[in-house]
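[Q] Does anyone have a clean structure-token version of this?
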Amino acid sequence: MQESEIRFLFDKIKKLRVGVIGDFAVDFYYDIQKTTGETSLETQKEVWWASRPRTSLGGAGNVVQNLLALEVASVKVFGAIGRDVNGREMLHLLQSQGVDTAGIRVQDKGWDTCTYTKPLLDNTEENRLDFGTHNILPDEDFEKILKSLRLQLAQLDVLIINQQFASPLITKERVELLNQILPVYPQVHVLADMRTYGMAIRGATLKVNTEELARLLGREAYRHWTSDDCEMYGRQLSDLIEGPVLITRGDQGMQYVHGEVNRQSAALPLKGELDTVGAGDTAVAAFAACMGAHIPVVESLALANLASAVSVQKLNQTGSATLEEIVEIVREQQAVAFQSPGDTLL
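[A] Here you go.
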């Protein structure tokens, strides 16, 4: 894929109106120092020092962050937060970037804003402290979120469904409610990324990694699957959900299966330390944007691969990929290919 092609695709993506419904979270990073020589007078325990606190959007929020990096025209979000400090921070992170948060429901009680607290010791992530990952949203509150979504669907080009946790927002029964609504708006391209309830979706494109694909079908030994294996199992899952399947395969790239269609894009050869946190969200955002812009599958896979290659090179953060970052990695890969003419880029 050439630079001119990438810029052409981005021109189409920039016109999109995208909605995201799912499990929104805050990623809270900070550096920690455990050996300080300072003792608490109250507890007589050593005091740990923390520095450089920083937050970013996680969960479904990271999908939003990636959509914003792709410069889509607008993003509307639908979900729930608590009336707490992390909820205020999430609204700030979303609204400061121009995201429409009218579909976010603030829960007054019984709900902690989903937050991944990530202390870094010498740039290595320590034990994570999670808030809100076992919330339970009452059905009547989900109905209100669903009503907000229903009122906005006609104005969307793309809807992304993100399910991170087993219970906070999206359950199997609630996926079935979405299945009843989405066919009314056939012009909306729907991509679902669901860790637990992927088998419940109907008609949408379902993104899975190989572990998720194996689990959904009750298979094992997925680490040794070839592209032929992924095609076979991807087709099985595609038949069950009555829609396309997008398979992310790590350093083996990505694969799209639907009916008789089987398309692949190889991963880029990358060197150095990599951080795969959030790379799946990058792939979801890029591929969904391409779907909404009516970009052919082959080019969609290639762009999603390029965006993911940018994302995984960003350490200790949930990465994203901008146009200029994607263009830069293409230039780098082309320079390598020019020096080794036996290699291919994509």
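[Q] Thanks! Anything notable?
[A] The longest strand covers residues 49-59.
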